[in-house]
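Honest question from a wet-lab person: if I give you the sequences of every part of a complex, can you actually get the arrangement of the whole thing, not just the pieces? Trying it with mine:
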Amino acid sequence: MKKLQDLTFAMIGLGLIGGSYAKALKNLKVKNVIGLDRNKVVTLMALDEGYIDEGCLDSLEPLRQADVIIATLYPANLVEFVREHVQYFKQDVLFTDVTGVKSNLLEQVDALLGAGRDFVSGHPMAGREGKGYGQSAAEIFNGANYIVIKREVNQPEHVQWLKDFALTLGCKHVVEITAEEHDKIIAYTSDLPHVLALSLVNSASLTPNTKYFIAGSFRDATRVADINGPLWADLFLYNKVGVIAEIEQYKKELDKWEQLLRADDKQGLLEYMEAAKQKRKDLFNAKNYR
Amino acid sequence: MKKLQDLTFAMIGLGLIGGSYAKALKNLKVKNVIGLDRNKVVTLMALDEGYIDEGCLDSLEPLRQADVIIATLYPANLVEFVREHVQYFKQDVLFTDVTGVKSNLLEQVDALLGAGRDFVSGHPMAGREGKGYGQSAAEIFNGANYIVIKREVNQPEHVQWLKDFALTLGCKHVVEITAEEHDKIIAYTSDLPHVLALSLVNSASLTPNTKYFIAGSFRDATRVADINGPLWADLFLYNKVGVIAEIEQYKKELDKWEQLLRADDKQGLLEYMEAAKQKRKDLFNAKNYR
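Yes, you can. This is the full assembly:
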């Protein structure tokens, strides 16, 4: 691979995540960044602000120059985009994604790319509230974890490149796992917290008066209910087996609560809380999380 | 009632909440604030910092001067404290609390106080992370909701005084409800979010590797797992009927998720998320919450 600054990048999608890559690439003084968004106004804005050097407005021809393509698309759109536009991809392009669920998407994309083009799949655990280009920022990568999917089909130098690139972006840890492991873990660490937040707001217990009785715990517990529905419908459905398993696992904890409460088991409650407190401390004191 | 500044206040407990009252009272230029904490070092510190004018160190005699007593004790300690020390309360004292669960505590305290002494129960929906005097701050009341418990036994002028006092502290809304309503609503808006956070951390899905896969949603969803166990064991147990009811209600939402996912019902998921998003927006746009 050429030096980072001399590679030509193409950003497919310039939303919160895609825009953040474009901004980070410019911070890193990459000379040539091509950008494309389904909303042309966004492409024009990124051009105007200088975060991309060339925009795909009326044609995808500029993609032919890209050494690295980073697709920041919704799961359902990833395969579709490759199917429709693979003819513009260089024969030896390094193709990567940020998709929050892997399922069987990788094999579908592989089949469309054909030999030579290498799909090294990734998932930066980076983000922030809101959505869209206006919310994008190079800083979202600072201190974040970056998952790289471990696959036999990939060229080792490309995998190494993506791992190095993640650290260059400012990420703190790169972890390599299989697509199956990814989806299983994400069902717990990301899908489940979203399910919980949405369920709390949608509980039949919510009334017009609820607003007078909320404090920090309710606010924190429901923050992500301000959700990008179309994206998350895909994430949940592509990972439905894992999500259902996590919900079932979680219900067991709720059952424990009911048992402890019914038994007036103060000691049991204290131990339950102490265990959770300690686990969370370990999780965040590990300094693997900003 | 005398002018606020001329009343003698006694703070029973100088932790996060009690210390915050003491600091707020001094901001309001109240001339005489008596303080008492089971930890004498805390009492000495509050004296040294000038947030209280007199501390109960070796005797509770100073309490005899108090026109208003604000008890910021754990539920189980509230009744116990009144039982042991009611002889130091003025015959016409206005006694108030901040207890997060009301249950049958109010009647127990009434019986101990006897006629003349008036227990107007309250619950400021104010707080912050951590615990103890060191975390206390007058600002926790700013923009918060303050619940006043509606009871026939109280003197109307005392109830009005507490409502006015809450606004003077900086609270934005005062709501009057019965003890039963209080506990029912708090089971949903406060107890349940704590149950959910603790359960997420304690799920069997957590492994030593989880730390590499967490982003904002998991962090937010588990923030309150850093919990004051002895306090919350009381809050949960005194409100156990309500908490169990809320857990049961919540499980119905989780069941809906499983149905939607099993049925691959994308439209249903979109509608579910949209409803939650809208409800949360209404909740927080109502500007009844800081």
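Two things worth pointing out. The CA atoms of residues 201 and 222 of chain B lie 7 Å apart. Strands of chain B lie at 8-12, 32-36, 54-55, 68-71, 94-97, 118-119, 122-124, 145-149, 173-177.
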